[in-house]
Amino acid sequence: MLIKTSTRFDGSDIAASDITPQPVFERRRQFVLSAGLGVAGLALTPRAFAANAPADEAKLAATPNPKFQVSDTQTSLKDITSYNNFYEFGTDKGDPVENAHTLQTRPWSVSVEGEIHNPKTYGIDEILKLAPLEERTYRLRCVEGWSMVIPWIGFSLSEIIKRAQPTANAKYVQFITLADPKQMPGLSSNILNWPYSEGLRMDEAMNPLTLVTVGLYGQVLPKQDGAPVRIIVPWKYGFKSAKSLVKIRFVEKQPPTSWNQYASSEYGFYSNVNPDVDHPRWSQATERRIGDGSVFSPKRKTLMFNGYGDQVASMYQGMDLRKFY
Ligand SMILES: Nc1nc2c(c(=O)[nH]1)N[C@H]1C(S)=C(S)[C@@H](COP(=O)(O)O)O[C@H]1N2
Ligand SMILES: [Mo]
After folding, report:
1. Does residue 297 form part of some domain?
2. What residues contact residue 190 under an 8 Å CB cut-off, 6+ apart?
3. Does residue 155 carry a pLDDT above 70?
4. Which residues have a Cβ under 8 Å from the Cβ of 291 and sit 6 or more positions away?
5. Is residue 8 part of a domain?
6. Which residue minimizes the CA distance to atom 6 of ligand 1?
7. pLDDT of residue 51
8. Stretch 100-106: mean pLDDT, rounded?
């Protein structure tokens, strides 16, 4: 069983970070840190200070692609790197920034396998050179009701898929991420079936929006954001965007996904952002943009397909999106 103070991504246990508006929580955390300094300064490792500072990662050059930009204000690097969901490093939003330093991002390889003519294992340096790196600013909407706007760096997953040459049997793509208990303390809890698994239908995987992501804000992907390579699927709830990817498998049948196995009535395979289909335990009509104004700022209306309807709605024509949630 999880300890009471942890935040499950489905909200079944509530932490201070969830019931308290973000700036208040941040201030309280700051206070706790400085209070700790006076009373027991020696107990505070340098890491305790690093936790609230923006990540300092190697620079990564990318060309902005004007086709993939949003006009919303970008979320600060500090928020993007200190408020995370990455259960392999703990279930609290602040756990990944504290714990992900143990993730070894080199050497790293991603195996591309299954129903394809051209199976291949890519080293991370091959992935970085596989296609021109683009900067694309996407909205990310977590199923919990918060969102961010993030300038990612990467290239369309279709670049890998066309090299893989899928067979006629390839109907879905499964994403499997690293599960190494030596590097990932969160694996000692069996809250999810590890390794974290996600999937897309073939047309969704081929959609130009689907991004193989290797960086953000002009730098390599910080560990807490899923280094060294992750998937971003901006029209779906954030949990579809699997971090620290090690395997891309082409399959005939809809693959199992970790969150669907955890609670199939709450987290469907499709999980398109949809303000009209509530989570069984909360509304999805609005969202809190992290870093938005003051704690009194009104929530924003959540957009159908997270605002990407023009680019994705046609894939779901004739589908009942209540049934295929
Ligand atoms: N491997 C793995 N990938 C994951 C998760 C996770 O726990 N493990 N959490 C998901 C969820 S719920 C969200 S909202 C996003 C958060 O990405 P971010 O922390 O970079 O904003 O990552 C997704 N990818
Ligand atoms: Mo999420």
Report:
1. yes
2. none
3. yes
4. 22, 75, 76, 79, 148
5. no
6. 86
7. 45
8. 98
Ligand 1 nearest atom to the CA of residue 150, by list position: 21
CA-to-CA distance for 67 and 38, rounded, in angstroms? Answer: 51
Q: What is the pLDDT of residue 31?
A: 36
Residue 144 CA to ligand 2 center (angstroms) comes to 6
Ligand 1 atom nearest the C-alpha of 87 is 7
Give the domain extent around 180. Answer: 16-316
Report the C-alpha gap between 76 and 89 in whole angstroms. Answer: 22
pLDDT at 12: 66
Q: Which CATH number fits the domain that encloses residue 304? A: 3.90.420.10
Position 322 in a domain = no
Ligand 1, atom 16, lies closest to the CA of 85
Gap between the Cα atoms of 248 and 35, Å rounded: 46
Burial track 245-256 (b if 16+ CB lie within 10 A, e otherwise)? bbbbbbbeeebe
Residue 69 bridge partners (DSSP) = none
Longest dimension (CA), the chain: 66
Task: Count other C-beta atoms under 10 Å from residue 161's C-beta.
Answer: 20
pLDDT tens per residue, range 242-277? 999 999 999 999 999 999 999 999 999 999 999 999
Q: Does some domain include residue 9? A: no
Alpha carbon of 45 to ligand 2 centroid (Å)? 29
Pocket of ligand 1 (CB under 6 A): 9, 84-88, 140, 142, 177, 196, 225-226, 238-239, 241-244
pLDDT digits (tens, 9 = 90+) for 160-214: 999 999 999 999 999 999 999 999 999 999 999 999 999 999 999 999 999 999 9
Nearest residue (by CA) to ligand 1, atom 8, is: 86
Q: Write the burial class of residue 11 (CB in 10 Å: 0-12 exposed, 13-18 middle, 19+ buried).
A: middle
